[in-house]
Design goal:
By secondary structure, the chain is α+β, with helices and mostly antiparallel strands. Helix content is about 55%, strand content about 15%. The longest helix is centred in the middle third of the chain and has 22 residues, at about 105-125. The radius of gyration is 22 Å and the shape is elongated.
């Protein structure tokens, strides 16, 4: 009825805004139409592109493309980076953008949207420096995997590690181990990052071994513990592990 061909290939792009604490809420609401006009002028370059507001803080762009992967389109990448810069410069607003896979027809668009939603959730914790996430990014593959753990496996991991979770020093031990993994299981680098004596780090890792029965010198055991801790803990803990360990 309104001239949109739903058989065209499109990818779903989610834009989630985070107004700064200095941003004026009233102005933020009123400036929506200005930001929409910017997107229409600089990003929506096809008359089959669609833009809609899911909420005031989350928008959905259905981007029509002839390419196999819109994410590799340098021009599009520049456009959305420029949009982020424009928001920050003009409105003191940051935004995170998630790009789903290409989909065709209603079912394909639905799959792209669901993938973009999962990617946005995982991407928020995968890389704080870059706020554009693509469903195929290796950087968010692990957070996506952890987010979609089968409930049975998640329960098994939780039950097997309940002694560690109930330990009074769980937060310290968890943050220590996550930092150990983050530094590629290198004791010297981990100790320096946490401002710990090497012997203190070894003591903490040995305590984890004693509580869990896992051998942290074995890569497979480290994978199991890493996945279990990331599934249980707030993902922010992984980024803030250094501060938590220093405080305790």
């Amino acid at each position: 009825m309104i001239g949109f061909d739903l058989s065209r290939r499109r990818c779903c792009i989610l834009i989630e805004f985070q107004p700064s604490s200095q941003a004026n809420p009233t102005m933020w609401t009123h400036d929506h139409h200005v930001m929409q006009e910017y997107l229409y002028a600089h990003v929506l370059d096809d008359d089959q592109d669609l833009l809609t507001l899911l909420t005031l803080d989350r928008w959905l762009l259905l981007k029509t493309t002839h390419l196999d992967d819109v994410y590799k389109n340098k021009s599009f990448h520049y456009q959305i980076h420029r949009f982020q810069e424009h928001l920050l410069e003009q409105y003191q607003i940051t935004c995170q953008i998630s790009i789903g896979p290409l989909g065709q027809s209603i079912s394909g668009i639905q799959e792209s949207f669901e993938s973009a939603e999962r990617t946005l959730t995982a991407g928020k914790y995968a890389n704080e420096l870059h706020n554009i996430y693509h469903y195929a990014d290796w950087a968010i593959a692990l957070p996506l995997l952890i987010e979609q753990l089968h409930p049975y496996l998640e329960k098994r991991l939780h039950d097997n590690l309940s002694n560690l979770f109930d330990d009074p020093k769980f937060n310290t031990l968890s943050a220590t181990f996550l930092s150990y993994c983050h530094h590629n299981m290198n004791l010297s680098k981990t100790a320096r990052a946490l401002y710990l004596h090497r012997n203190s780090l070894v003591y903490r890792l040995q305590k984890i071994k004693d509580i869990t029965g896992l051998d942290l010198d074995q890569f497979e055991d480290c994978i199991l513990l890493y996945v279990a801790l990331r599934a249980k803990s707030n993902p922010v803990l992984f980024q803030e592990g250094k501060e938590n360990v220093k405080q305790e």
